Amino acid sequence: FYSLEQSSSQNYGGIGAVIAHEISHAFDNNGAQFDKEGNLNKWWLDKDYEAFEEKQKEMIALFDGVETEAGPANGKLIVSENIADQGGITAALTAAKDEKDVDLKAFFSQWAKIWRMKASKEFQQMLLSMDFHAPAKLRANIPPTNLEEFYDTFDVKETDKMYRAPENRLKIW
């Protein structure tokens, strides 16, 4: 996640995105229900919360039914973590781009590396049925496809498997 021997871009793509992920939980579908004092309290304007609920539905649809080695993902089960992943990578990318030596290839590559996992199919199936996190491969591959910089960095084209049309790129914040 972090190393003094890594570039700042790699550290933003690793620990930076994870820290931002955790902070963004304050505003995911669970955290959004609590006010600044930590009390269960409706504090959003109705129109803002309705717009956020639409974004939640889009996030559910983005992951729901995506096939993995262990079976299809359950978009409803993993929505809060997916919102946090998208918020985390987006915030970390924004911060990384402020660095004079930013290397977006290193940033996105580190993001993918932190989700590497080696596990039996049975273990993956168990996680798929009860873990609130998306399967590792989906965490690595789906959030970047919502970011324009990913397409520019890797020259992703319409014919590439990771291509998502601009109008389908989900922006939570």
Write a structural description.
The chain has 173 residues and is mainly α. It has helices at residues 8-24, 46-63, 79-96, 104-114, 121-130, 136-141, 148-154, and strands at 67-68, 71-72. It has a two-stranded antiparallel sheet with strand order 1-2. Helix 1 (8-24) packs across helix 4 (104-114). Strand 1 (67-68) and strand 2 (71-72) form a beta hairpin. The model has no long low-confidence stretch (mean pLDDT 97). It has a single domain (8-168), classed as Collagenase (Catalytic Domain).
Strand content: under 5%
| CATH architecture label | 3-Layer(aba) Sandwich
Number of individual domains: 1
Helix tally equals 7
Annotated CATH homologous superfamily: Collagenase (Catalytic Domain)
What is the CATH class designation? Alpha Beta
Mean pLDDT: 97
GO molecular function: metalloendopeptidase activity
Domain Peptidase M13 C-terminal: 1-170
EC number: 3.4.24.-
Organism: Lactococcus lactis
List the helices and strands and how they pair.
Layout: H1 8-24, H2 46-63, E1 67-68, E2 71-72, H3 79-96, H4 104-114, H5 121-130, H6 136-141, H7 148-154
Antiparallel strand pairs: 1-2
Helix pairs in contact: 1-3, 1-4, 2-3
Descriptors for this entry?
single chain; 173 residues; mainly alpha; Collagenase (Catalytic Domain); two-stranded antiparallel ribbon; 7 helices; 2% strand; hydrolase; Endopeptidase PepO
Short recap of the structure:
This protein has 173 residues and is mainly alpha-helical. The protein has helices at 8-24, 46-63, 79-96, 104-114, 121-130, 136-141, 148-154; strands spanning 67-68, 71-72. Helices cover 50% and strands 2% of the residues.
